[in-house]
Amino acid sequence: MEPTDGSFVAGSDLTPAGNLIAAAFAPGGTLYGLDISSGTVDLVTISPTSTVAVVNSILAAAATSDLDIASNGTAFVVMSPNGSGGLTNLYTLNLTTAVETLLGSIQPSSIRSVTVVP
Question: From edge to edge, which strands make up the β-sheet containing 100-106?
Answer without folding.
Answer: 62-69, 75-81, 88-93, 100-106
